[in-house]
Amino acid sequence: MNSNNTPSSSAGGPGSAAADSTAPPTTRNSKRPKYSRFTQQELPACKPILTPKWVISAFMLVTVIFIPIGVASLFASHDVVEIIDRYETDCIPEDSRKDKIAYIQSSGDKTCNRILNVTKHMKHPIYVYYQLDNYYQNHRRYVKSRSDQQLRDRDSENDTSACKPEDKTANGSTIVPCGLIAWSLFNDSYSFSRNNQNLSVNKHGISWKSDRDHKFGKDVFPKNFQSGGLIGGKHLNESIPLSEQEDLIVWMRTAALPTFRKLYGKIEVDLVAGDVINVTLQNNYNTYSFNGKKKLVLSTTSWLGGKNDFLGIAYLTVGGLCFFLAMVFTIIYLVKPRRLGDPSYLSWNRNPGGH
Amino acid sequence: MKRCVYINDDDLSHDIYCDNRISNRKYTVWNFLPKNLWEQFSRFMNQYFLLIACLQLWSLITPVNPASTWGPLILIFAVSATKEAWDDYNRYLSDKKANEKEVWAVRHGVKKHIQAQDIHVGNIVWLRENDEVPCDLVLIGTSDPQGLCYVETAALDGETDLKTRVIPSACMGIDFDLLHKVKGLIECPEPDKDIRRFDANLRLFPPFLDNDVCPITIKNTLLQSCYLRNTEWACGVAVYTGNETKLGMTRGVPEPKLTAVDAMIDKLTGAIFVFQLVVVMVLGVAGNIWKDTEARKLWYVEYPTKGPWYELLVIPLRFELLCSIMIPISIKVSLDLVKGLYAKFIDWDNKMVDQETSTPAHAANTAISEDLGQVEYILTDKTGTLTENQMIFKRCCISGTFYGNEIGDALKDEDLVNAVATRSPDVIHFLTVMAICNTVVPIQRQNGTILYKAQSQDEEALVHAAAGLHMVFVKKNGNVLDINFNASVIQYEVLDTLEFTSDRKRMSVVVKDCQSGKLFLLSKGADEAILPCASTGQQTRTFSEAVEQYSQLGLRTLCLAWRELEEDEYQEWSLMFKEANSALVDRDWRIAEVCQRLEHHLQILGVAAIEDRLQDGVPETIETLRKAGINFWMLTGDKQNTAIQIALSCNFVSPEPKGQLLLINGKTGDEVRQSLERVLLTMRITSSEPKDVAFVIDGWALEIALKHHHKAFMELALLSKTAICCRVTPSQKAQLVELLKSCEYRTLAIGDGGNDVRMIQQAHIGVGISGREGLQAARAADYSIGKFRFLKRLILVHGRYSYNRTAFLSQYSFYKSLLICFIQIFFSLISGVSGTSLFNSVSLMAYNVFYTSVPVLVNVLDKDLSERTVMQHPQILFYCQAGRLLNPSTFAGWFGRSLFHAIVVFVICIHSYAFEKSEMEELSMVVLSGCIWLQAFVVALETNSFTILQHLAIWGNLVAFYVINWIVSALPSSGMYTIMFRLCRQPSYWITMFLIVVAGMGPVLALKYFRYTYRPSKINILRQAERLGGPILSLGNIEPQSRAFEKEVSPLSISQPKSRSPVYEPLLSDSPNAIRRSFGPGAPFDFFQSQSRLSSSYARNCKDN
């Protein structure tokens, strides 16, 4: 019924003026903004405030969560068995130690034997890493010196503009893979034996599958690599496509920190406590000119990754601090309670001179 | 320099002045691009970004893709250029409309219809009733036989009454048909902006009359944008055209306004820039040293032994680019966006819609909403701004009987209605004077109602009131007036009109009752002009008391009087009057003198009180805003007394004994100086007292004070929180604004008329009231509102929220940029100081433009306190005024926070992602997600009110971050292919994120909680109270009520001061101690005092900062 009345009353002319002025004149004027909770800034809102109860329980909650996680992380880290062998100095014959650089740059045989003692049972797979210290794979000149197009696609072979100075050989033919990163490929090699029995190292699947499938082409073969006057690192077999050159693929995943480990291979058998492992390594890679360290690392893994106490300790510390804060706040709250929102704290409700 | 105007001369050689084309445009089609680009590039920030963008083109040094800077830069430029172009186009359209208006003008001796823009200097222009004057004209003819015409000058000076203009004596009596043939020469000054002065000479060429030079004054001119009223036609000679008219010269180019917040942001940007330079220098030098000592040993980097000449520059420049994100490019865009939204919120606000006219508030300038929250001084116009500009007859006192005192409306007072019905002679006479002692013209409308056209609104009010009491002024037939009284028609013939002048302050008419043939002199005028003319025997005491009482109520008073004239007396006088009227020398003076001879021995009939009604809510608004620490100055063209009355009635100044008014007056420099010094002395004495001291100054004294005693007046301006300046011109208004601006106060000017335009443009914020005086002010203003009372909401709600939001937004923008930049710097320390970017281009761009902008943009919905709380505690505005939320020290807090968070994120990430996990792309994503997580929690912690949109933006953004990165990680061609999937599968990633959040936010939360609870700011307290519903709300509720009650009674309970004028004498004559004694220690007003103290101390703080 109402809907029938409305049009007639709005057409009522001067008579409806009084009604108009009392009712909001929505019908009269379209200039009037439309009402919505958004435009009126009246959206329902929740306004949390920092009450002592809330804050103290938040800190307590963090404590309760953090301590167990910290303990679990520490246990995980301690479960990891790690054997580290630093060899860069020991693998240089005593008489050559005065001039390590000359030794490493000489072309003689640099074989070196190392003995590793297994102190704890190590379950397979055991990861074999090489660790470099003070090696700046993240240096700007270095990190940019690569051509992803060239690595992926045979047709983009000449896409080497970023690779300088290792883009072309002296006679102008393109280097594949080009750039400083590939050129400086790590070239120490390790072979392991236990009780004079060869321990095989599986070097398949050490790189990321995504890299093998999509970043490094199956039809891209090394070309003119390490053929210049200056030899950087490892040579590549020119008959194997880049997608199967896993050492290169691993190396090309540049490390963000100057200390890093890169996967060399996996040992697929358990090592028992007391085992003595003989390592025969070829010490070829020059870290001597910049005092870099080289380490061989054998490590198991846990759900958190390798051996790293940092997370566990950090969790325990933060958890402890939160507990401390919660306690402090509780004590302050109990000793010196303060009513929230007390209008007497408003200086304009106080006597003059309070400010 | 003189300008010679040859009237009606079609010889083009004389046409050396500009035509009447009005142009407010800034650009033309051709110069738009270069001029606009030049303007944009004159801003430091834009230059900076352009430099960075250019440097990025150099691939040797750029850490990221140049598109990441060029894209946003071009977008920013395009947006602001488009906006400018649109504004200019609108100006062009409005100019075009004015320029193409058709007017009648004489061309080659023929009257023609031409466009307004084609009027040249010297042309004769014809105007008809209600036409707008297209350019400045010297009148040469009107339809009135006496050469008079009426103009409405509201657009020019804001005065709404009709002004009389008269043709120069030389043109008197020229025949209508000959007018367009007139030739002559007008010598006038070069164009200036003084609308009260025009000193020129006119000489008509033969055959027209004499060769004598005839002086021309402003009385003989019609100025541009005035309207011709009550005159059938008029014609005049164009003397100033186009932008050279008085109005055109007055119209200054509005400068772009920069808010205090913007200035602060610019300052902080500058500081960050310096910091950035330092960082770049240090890292650059360190990088070069490291390169020479260490990097040359790194054979795998293959540094050439000898580099190019610019080798030393490469590393510093790389760091410059790396650190360029310290100054967030997004801040400009974000700020423009949110400012646009603030303006929209004002436009949309239903609570600021004027119900009567349905005009919503409008923010024309979208860039300065924050300034609203920082206003310290409000300069307000009176008529039409504080008042309705609608005069209504309210009370009267007829022969000692007060009508309308009880119910506040004499028309409804039964006593008066009865008196009219019983034809009480005094009342009848009173009504007769009301109805016919005026120059009102009644116009019969078709529906039978009568429209009154009056020169002054007072007269209109009186005639309306008389009509309401059955004394209806029906018709004016030449000199015969028809009055319809209780169905019988009485006719009067007007014999003479003794006009109102501001010196005489009264006007009279001599009328003859057509029935009885008796002659009467009817007078009305100000009490001081009428009461001394009372007949000797009459007691005027009751009348002066009535006047006094009405003044206290803020009503305008008029005394009405009459006298019966003897025939002889009149005849004798009439001759003298005619003679005086035709006098050539000192005509005004002689007329006045002659009038005085008739206006004596008047029988005072009574006092009429007219109300220029205050707008609704004006006193409350002023009181609230004053509580908020805003000082008010009233600048009005009106009379001193009226101004003071209005000031009293709208809480502008308190009545005695709380308030005190100090007058500054004087006609000469010395007088003004003395007066000024006296007032200053009083001010200094009373400044320590909780007294509401205001000074009153009129335009003349102000002129002298500003010119000769600038310093003293400055001091006065600093000391005084309230001032009333009356009789000031538009340019003086602007000067006062300028004065306050030079004291580094944030000023807001509010007005409604064309006379306020300059002040509005001059002030930091101009607010126009879209009222009766047209829309000039509203158009020129940054904000237009329908009623004065909306100012409260505009400032306290919109201004305050805008300030708070911008303060957060801008600091947060710097925080997030600094965060990412610090991480880049830390990373460069472990990457051989070579300037490697940890993040890839896409992430960096998305971080600034997307991930961190969206959640913070939703912050425009944040409300720290509810609107109601703010209205109840306007004092909280101090925080905004003093810039407590955005200043170097708060910024230092954010700076510290970003440094802390950068350390937390970086240290945790490089330790948990060490050794075999330290892969570049992975670490980069871990660090980036660490930053994003922290951002989300920082925004959440700083948000005061969560609406659904905020939750969506904050947490949705976090989700969006992962979704986007998953998508990017799914593209085999992207550098970070599979990275995000790998990370999300690692428990260590999530554990790291959790650790970052808690380690980053824990201390922040603890600190905030401690401050919030044990060192709370006023805002915190109010928030807590609001949330917990403590006693504060009830306290707030009671308070305004009690205040309102007090206010209501105050006008009646004023102890009667001795002098009739409500202006109290400067206190200096008394001993200051006496006043102090009169003010008890337990005065209920310490509330106000404490706040004013607070305000000043806050202001100091602000200045110190």
From TrEMBL, chain A:
<feature type="transmembrane region" description="Helical">
    <location>
        <begin position="313"/>
        <end position="335"/>
    </location>
</feature>
<feature type="transmembrane region" description="Helical">
    <location>
        <begin position="54"/>
        <end position="76"/>
    </location>
</feature>
<dbReference type="Pfam" id="PF03381">
    <property type="entry name" value="CDC50"/>
</dbReference>
<keyword id="KW-0472">Membrane</keyword>
<feature type="region of interest" description="Disordered">
    <location>
        <begin position="1"/>
        <end position="37"/>
    </location>
</feature>
<dbReference type="InterPro" id="IPR005045">
    <property type="entry name" value="CDC50/LEM3_fam"/>
</dbReference>
<feature type="compositionally biased region" description="Basic and acidic residues">
    <location>
        <begin position="145"/>
        <end position="157"/>
    </location>
</feature>
<keyword id="KW-1133">Transmembrane helix</keyword>
<comment type="similarity">
    <text>Belongs to the CDC50/LEM3 family.</text>
</comment>
<protein>
    <recommendedName>
        <fullName>ALA-interacting subunit</fullName>
    </recommendedName>
</protein>
<dbReference type="GO" id="GO:0005886">
    <property type="term" value="C:plasma membrane"/>
</dbReference>
<dbReference type="GO" id="GO:0005794">
    <property type="term" value="C:Golgi apparatus"/>
</dbReference>
<feature type="compositionally biased region" description="Low complexity">
    <location>
        <begin position="1"/>
        <end position="27"/>
    </location>
</feature>
<dbReference type="GO" id="GO:0005783">
    <property type="term" value="C:endoplasmic reticulum"/>
</dbReference>
<feature type="region of interest" description="Disordered">
    <location>
        <begin position="145"/>
        <end position="169"/>
    </location>
</feature>
<keyword id="KW-0812">Transmembrane</keyword>
From TrEMBL, chain B:
<protein>
    <recommendedName>
        <fullName>Phospholipid-transporting ATPase</fullName>
        <ecNumber>7.6.2.1</ecNumber>
    </recommendedName>
</protein>
<dbReference type="InterPro" id="IPR023214">
    <property type="entry name" value="HAD_sf"/>
</dbReference>
<feature type="transmembrane region" description="Helical">
    <location>
        <begin position="44"/>
        <end position="61"/>
    </location>
</feature>
<keyword id="KW-1133">Transmembrane helix</keyword>
<dbReference type="InterPro" id="IPR032630">
    <property type="entry name" value="P_typ_ATPase_c"/>
</dbReference>
<keyword id="KW-0460">Magnesium</keyword>
<dbReference type="InterPro" id="IPR036412">
    <property type="entry name" value="HAD-like_sf"/>
</dbReference>
<dbReference type="InterPro" id="IPR044492">
    <property type="entry name" value="P_typ_ATPase_HD_dom"/>
</dbReference>
<feature type="domain" description="P-type ATPase C-terminal">
    <location>
        <begin position="778"/>
        <end position="1017"/>
    </location>
</feature>
<dbReference type="InterPro" id="IPR023299">
    <property type="entry name" value="ATPase_P-typ_cyto_dom_N"/>
</dbReference>
<dbReference type="InterPro" id="IPR032631">
    <property type="entry name" value="P-type_ATPase_N"/>
</dbReference>
<feature type="transmembrane region" description="Helical">
    <location>
        <begin position="894"/>
        <end position="913"/>
    </location>
</feature>
<feature type="transmembrane region" description="Helical">
    <location>
        <begin position="988"/>
        <end position="1010"/>
    </location>
</feature>
<dbReference type="InterPro" id="IPR006539">
    <property type="entry name" value="P-type_ATPase_IV"/>
</dbReference>
<dbReference type="InterPro" id="IPR023298">
    <property type="entry name" value="ATPase_P-typ_TM_dom_sf"/>
</dbReference>
<dbReference type="InterPro" id="IPR018303">
    <property type="entry name" value="ATPase_P-typ_P_site"/>
</dbReference>
<feature type="transmembrane region" description="Helical">
    <location>
        <begin position="925"/>
        <end position="941"/>
    </location>
</feature>
<keyword id="KW-0472">Membrane</keyword>
<feature type="transmembrane region" description="Helical">
    <location>
        <begin position="818"/>
        <end position="838"/>
    </location>
</feature>
<dbReference type="Pfam" id="PF13246">
    <property type="entry name" value="Cation_ATPase"/>
</dbReference>
<keyword id="KW-0812">Transmembrane</keyword>
<keyword id="KW-0547">Nucleotide-binding</keyword>
